[in-house]
Structures are given as structure tokens and as C-alpha cells.
UniProtKB/TrEMBL annotation, chain A:
NDH-1 is composed of 14 different subunits. Subunits NuoB, C, D, E, F, and G constitute the peripheral sector of the complex. This is NADH-quinone oxidoreductase subunit C. The keyword Acetylation does not apply. The gene is nuoC. Its EC number is 7.1.1.-.
Length: 231, 447
């Protein structure tokens, strides 16, 4: 019911659209209700790029990283977001390992621990459907920042950071298992939570939750992802 | 599965033409055949997933030569229940009852980190009433004592020291009595909620806490007496499952294992939440970096936790009655339940209000309970010091009433990666000690 033009008109003006999380239609799970909310279309986006000054220690850290990356900095750091007191650097995947090396090794950055990698699936974000989110922890400076790498569904490949952060071994296996992101250069990227012969990647949004309808006091309650629910 | 990996692993094979296989569930018979073919050179032992000393459904695959372990691999996933996926289909409030079932030995740690994450997303971190924060700290410390006592008790039991186990569990039961009196449940409490906690203290709450402290301390003293000078226990634990600081940093190890190498890294001090900076307690460390030092650290941490519990009791007495949930009616759960004599939570005043007095209140109740509240779009990372190490949560909201993504970094999941380095080159019998000293819970590891 909603074509692209209509969606573009709904995009927030005044800043570059960033991660499109979701396009919500209607108010409820079931279509064709008579509430009048059926035609509602909402574009939900992540907080946009932040302009300097970022505040706290963020400016200094980004400056040091930019200096260390040299000419590659503009290409490597897609944009910087400061939201809810947290710093997020969107990194171009080819530069991820370099960025991590600088963040880990430079004495003024020294993010010696990577707290894993969390995948997120944004099916509406065309060309950047799969995101890998790396929280980095600096024990030396007691700081935390987040790296985010976005790749397309048809080319879901991200270089592995296991050579720099050995602790990410299982975390990358988990993200491969759940989202189908291939971490290139991982020593043995096997499934970790699901059985080896499992088909599909269960945490993706196009993978159903499953479940069966349950009868309760004579009425049939559909499984959780089939239920009529608020959006 | 390895065929799908871009680079096939050749780490353990010099000759690329040599037969290569990966040890996972379905090809176990192949491994046995291969071992038979190679003769007596190598023995592959499968341990678990249904083994009493693997702390749940952990599977360990050991390659041994005589009594020496030459290679160790851990196989997990036997308790994967898709909690994170399920949370995407429930409201933010309902999510609490899912994440509490991850690490079921330290239920409320997940509840707290999840709720702190939601509060950060909502921007209401500073609006949480102090009474709720004190109750949260109280619950965290009781949970920590319970979790450490299970670690110590089961660790002892696996070595044949049943008394250590029974003593630990009796001590843990004392904490459960207080937890049950306050939250209504012994474990999987669903007590810490976005915006506060589900209910305040019962009338004699502070007295119950005060009465519990000496009982738990007595059990801790008993455990010290049982263990501290026990030559057999020392012989089994000292110098076993060593992991030094550089290995900890490489493998992202946190919690008692990291502190046993001398680094006093504790998020309660480094990045205080819920007002931990205002409590007086120490972070015990050791430099022995072995299983024994981790056991002693867990004991010492229990004593420190009791100190915090005492301070919580004082503060709760001082604060008296009052709200334990944010004032914002669009977020706070509408009714304040109280525990009835039948053990069920109920709120007669609230029911009278919505059913007999105010239709608007009824509508509000209905909307908030069925629909939930909207959380502005964005993402946060929140970490707390769980009993087992750094417990983190990554939450993404699409602006709706349900999480777009909730990912938990369970410390056990990460720390279990160290099993290989702790066991290889050691004795077969020490594998059990290494697993116990990592102290993971498979419910949290597999989620």
C-alpha cells in the first residue's frame, strides 16, 4: 500500500538518513482493522550523525584515531554518533581490523578488551541489512566505545578481529550462527549454539519465532509471533 | 560446517593432505573410527553433556595421552532456548521474566543489567527512587553470595567433598529466605523492573535481613574452617588451572578469575551503578592465579557482600516506606503488588480503584499492561559486575513497545573459552577443577 515515494516523503528532513530500523504500517498485527490506524506508516531511524564537539573524552579519542588512520580516516570512519552518553563509530568493514589495532595498541586509546560482537538485523535498511556491533572496553582509561559495521544481506562478510581480540572467537561464531555474518579469517567459523546441520540463522527478522497455538479455557491462543499485537 | 568457513582451519595439521575433522555432535562415530585407526597413539574422551561435574550440559572433548590432557575443546549449545529471540516478541517489561532465566543461579543480575539498559534508553536513570536502588543493591549482593556459594559447593562436591556442598547450600538457602520474603520467589524472581522494583520491603523486612546476616556468616565461617587448611583440597586446587594476567586480557576474562591475577577490576568500583560508589566495601584480589586463589576470592567476596547487605539494611530502615518505582505513570507498572498470606501477589486497593472508582485508571492499566510503553529509538550498552564477571547487555529499540534486539554478554560464555588453556598439559582429573573454577552456568552460556 505504500510506495517508495510515499516513504521518502516521510523521511525526516534536515539530516542525512542513517540506519533505518523499521518501517511500521498500521497499529496492530492484524490488517484490515476498522480503527482508522490501518494506513499509518512510520519510518523509525537510529539517532543521526553527531556534529562536533562530541563532549566528554570522545573528541580526543576520535582525533587520535583519525590521526593514526591517516589518509584512510575519512573512508574508514563513516560517521560518529553520540547518543545517551555513548560513543558509536560506524566503521567501513575493510578498515575494521586497522581501526581495532589502533584502538587496542595506542597508549592513549588502549581498548584492550572487546566485549564480543552483537549482530542486529535491519531488513528495511537496504544494502546495510546486517550490523555487527563491537563494544570495546578500556580498563586502563575506564572507557567504553562502540564500533558498528554495516554490510548488505547479499554480501555479509566482515573481517574477523580474532587475531587482535582472541576473546571474540566464540562471539563471532555466535553471530555467524544467529545472523549468517561470515567473519573472514576466523580460525574455525562453526556454529556454536545451534546444531551443526541447522538450516537458517534464527535471530534474523525473517526467521519466525515458531511455536504452536495453545488452547486456554476453550479459546485458542496463537503462538507469540502470530498474535495480534501493538506495533 | 567448516566447509562454509572462508579459511579452512589448518592450525593443528602440518600436512594439508592429512585427514582433518572437526569434533562436533554428529560426527562422533567418525572420530572414534579415526582414533581406532591411529591405534594407541591418542585417546579421545568425550565428557558430557550429561556429566555430573560439568555444571550442567557442557560437553568437553579431551585428547589424552596417559593421564595428561593434550587438547581440550568445549561444546556448548545444549541448553540454547532462544531467550534473546523470544524477548523480541514481548514487551520491555515482560522481557525481565525471560532474561532472569539465563544464568539461573544469579537470576537478578540479568534483570538488573537489562533494566538499567532500558532506563538508559528511556533517559530515566536519575529518576529511580533511592529505595529501589538500595533494594537492587541488596538483591545483587544476596545473589552474589548465592552464586558464589553454589560455585564453592558444587566445586567441592565434584572433588568428593559433599560436606562443602551441603554447608554451602544451607547458607544459600538463608539468602533465599530473605529473597523470597521480599520478591515472592526464591529464584527467577522477575523482581527488578524497568523503573524500579516490583514491590517494597514487607513489614518486618529489615529485621529479616538483619537476622539472616549472622546465619550466613556462620555458614561462611564453617566453610572457611572446612576448606582453608584442608590439605587434600589444597593439593587438588593449588597450582591447578592457572591463568595469568596476559591470558586473561587476551581471552577477555573478567570476574574472580581476572582478580585472581592481581588486577582489581570490578565494575562496582570502576563504573558504579545503583549508587555502589556510596557503599563501603573492598575488592579482594590475589596473585596466585590458580583455582585455589579463586576459591578464596569467592569466599572473601561473600564476606564483602555481607558488609554491603548490612549497609543496605541500615539505609532501608532509614528510608522507611515510600515509592520503589519511578513516578512517571507512563512507565511505572500500575499496581503495587503486595505478597498475600496465600503467597500470591495482589493489590486490593488498586483493584478497588480501577474496578470501582476510575474508568481512566482502568484504561491506563489496560494499555500499560497489554501494550507496554514506548522506548525511544536507539541503542545502548550496559554492563554490571555479575558474580561471574562482566555481564553486559546490548539493547536496540525501534521506538516501539518491544526490544528490536536484546543481546546479553554472559561472563560464563566468554570465560569458558579459557577452558582449553587451563586444562591442556594438565591431568585429566584437573579438568573438573578447571571447570569449577571458571564457574559458568550453562543457562547463561547458551541463553
Amino acid at each position: 500500500m505504500s510506495d517508495d515515494k510515499q516513504l521518502d516523503a516521510l523521511a525526516p528532513q534536515g539530516r542525512e538518513p542513517l540506519t533505518l530500523i523499521n518501517v511500521r504500517e498500521g497499529m496492530f498485527g492484524a490488517r484490515g482493522d476498522t480503527s482508522g490506524y490501518d494506513g499509518l506508516v512510520q519510518r523509525v531511524q537510529m539517532p543521526g550523525a553527531t556534529e562536533r564537539p562530541y563532549g566528554e573524552w570522545f573528541d580526543g579519542a576520535v582525533d587520535i584515531l583519525t590521526e593514526l588512520l591517516g589518509d584512510a580516516a575519512d573512508e574508514a570512519i563513516e560517521y560518529v554518533v553520540v547518543d545517551r552518553g555513548e560513543l558509536t563509530l560506524y566503521i567501513q568493514r575493510d578498515h575494521l581490523v586497522d581501526v581495532c589495532r589502533h584502538l587496542r595498541d595506542d597508549q592513549d586509546l588502549r581498548f584492550e578488551m572487546c566485549l564480543g560482537v552483537s549482530g542486529v538485523h535491519y531488513p528495511a535498511d537496504k544494502g546495510r541489512e546486517l550490523h555487527a556491533v563491537y563494544p570495546l572496553q578500556s580498563i586502563t582509561h575506564n572507557r567504553r566505545l562502540r564500533l558498528e559495521v554495516a554490510v548488505g544481506d547479499d554480501d555479509a562478510r566482515i573481517p574477523s578481529v580474532v587475531s587482535l581480540y582472541p576473546m571474540n572467537n566464540w562471539h563471532e561464531r555466535e553471530t555467524w550462527d544467529f545472523f549468517g555474518i561470515v567473519f573472514e579469517g576466523h580460525p574455525s567459523l562453526a556454529r556454536i549454539e545451534m546444531p551443526d546441520d541447522w538450516v537458517g540463522h534464527p535471530q534474523r527478522k525473517d526467521y519466525p519465532l515458531g511455536g504452536i497455538p495453545v488452547e486456554y479455557k476453550g479459546a485458542e491462543i496463537p503462538s507469540p509471533d502470530e498474535r495480534r499485537q501493538y506495533r | 560446517m567448516s566447509t562454509q568457513a572462508p579459511h579452512a582451519p589448518h592450525a593443528f595439521v602440518e600436512d594439508p593432505d592429512a585427514p582433518e575433522y572437526t569434533v562436533y555432535g554428529s560426527d562422533w562415530s567418525d572420530v572414534v573410527d579415526e582414533a581406532k585407526r591411529l591405534g594407541q597413539q591418542r585417546i579421545v574422551v568425550n565428557m558430557g553433556p550429561q556429566h555430573p561435574s560439568t555444571h550442567g550440559v557442557l560437553r568437553v572433548m579431551l585428547e589424552i595421552e596417559g593421564e595428561t590432557v593434550t587438547e581440550t575443546r568445549a561444546g556448548i549449545g545444549y541448553l540454547h532456548t532462544g531467550i534473546e529471540k523470544n524477548m523480541e516478541y514481548r514487551t520491555w517489561t515482560q522481557g525481565v521474566t525471560f532474561c532472569t532465566r539465563m544464568d539461573y543461579v544469579a537470576s537478578m543480575s540479568q534483570e538488573l543489567v537489562y533494566c538499567l539498559g532500558i532506563e538508559k534508553l528511556l533517559g530515566i536513570t536519575d529518576d529511580i527512587p533511592e529505595r529501589a536502588s538500595v533494594l537492587r543493591v541488596l538483591m545483587m549482593e544476596l545473589t552474589r553470595i548465592g552464586s558464589h556459594l553454589v560455585a564453592i559447593g558444587t566445586g567441592g562436591n565434584e572433588l568428593g567433598a559433599t560436606t562443602i556442598m551441603t554447608t554451602s547450600f544451607v547458607g544459600r538457602e538463608e539468602t533465599f529466605r530473605v529473597i523470597e520474603a521480599i520478591t515472592g520467589l526464591r529464584t527467577n524472581n522477575n523482581y527488578i523492573r524497568p523503573g524500579g522494583v516490583s514491590q517494597g520491603l514487607p513489614e518486618d523486612g529489615v529485621e529479616q535481613i538483619r537476622a539472616m546476616i549472622p546465619k550466613v556468616r556462620a555458614k561462611l565461617d564453617e566453610l572457611v574452617a572446612l576448606q582453608a587448611k584442608n590439605p587434600i583440597l589444597q593439593g587438588r586446587l593449588k597450582g591447578v588451572a592457572e591463568l595469568n594476567l596476559s591470558a586473561c586480557m587476551a581471552l577477555g576474562i573478567t570476574g574472580p578469575i581476572l582478580r585472581s591475577t592481581g588486577l582489581p577490576y570490578d565494575l562496582r568500583k570502576a563504573e558504579p551503578y545503583c549508587g555502589y560508589e556510596t557503599y563501603d566495601f573492598q575488592v579482594p584480589t590475589s596473585t596466585d592465579q590458580d583455582a585455589w586463589s579463586r576459591l578464596i576470592l569467592r569466599m572473601e567476596e561473600c564476606y564483602e557482600s555481607l558488609k554491603i547487605v548490612e549497609q543496605c539494611a541500615d539505609r532501608l530502615e532509614q528510608l522507611g516506606d515510600g515509592p520503589v518505582m519511578v513516578a512517571d505513570k507512563k512507565i511505572a507498572w500500575p499496581s503495587q503488588l503486595s505478597l498475600g498470606t496465600d503467597g500470591q501477589g495482589n493489590s486490593p486497593d488498586h483493584i478497588r480503584h480501577i474496578m470501582g472508582e476510575s474508568m481512566e485508571a482502568l484504561i491506563h492499566h489496560f494499555k500499560l499492561v497489554t501494550e507496554g510503553f514506548d522506548v525511544p529509538a536507539g541503542q545502548v550498552y550496559q554492563a554490571i559486575e555479575g558474580p561471574k564477571g562482566l555481564l553486559g547487555v546490548h539493547l536496540v529499540s525501534d521506538g516501539g513497545t518491544k526490544p528490536w534486539r536484546a543481546h546479553f554478554r554472559d561472563p560464563g560464555f566468554n570465560n569458558l573459552q579459557a577452558l582449553g588453556i587451563m586444562c591442556e598439559g594438565g591431568q585429566v582429573a584437573d579438568v573438573v577443577v578447571a571447570i569449577a573454577s571458571i564457574d559458568m552456568v550453562l543457562g547463561g552460556v547458551d541463553r
